[in-house]
Known about the structure:
Helix content is 36%, strand content 34%. It is α+β, with helices and mostly antiparallel strands.
Amino acid sequence: MPAFIVATVTVSDAAAFGRYVDGIDGLAEQFGGHYVLRGPVTEYLEGGSTPGERVVMLQFDTAERARDFYTCEQYQAAKKHREGAAALTMRLIEA
């Protein structure tokens, strides 16, 4: 069953966040994942959130592979650059 990691991100320190992005470049693909979308929210149809919010969606073959991606040593090392550089909510969704 496919699984998706969906994150909403608001960046406050672009340089530090850039180090996080560099640290995970190509990593999802090592776990069979691929990006479905990456981009800024262009319009709120209902509700709202922080201006500048971005959405990222990755698809994996299984939830186990998505968890393997998130918990791997390389992701966890890169994640340290993101801490304090962005407000992020990350969800795992099985479809």
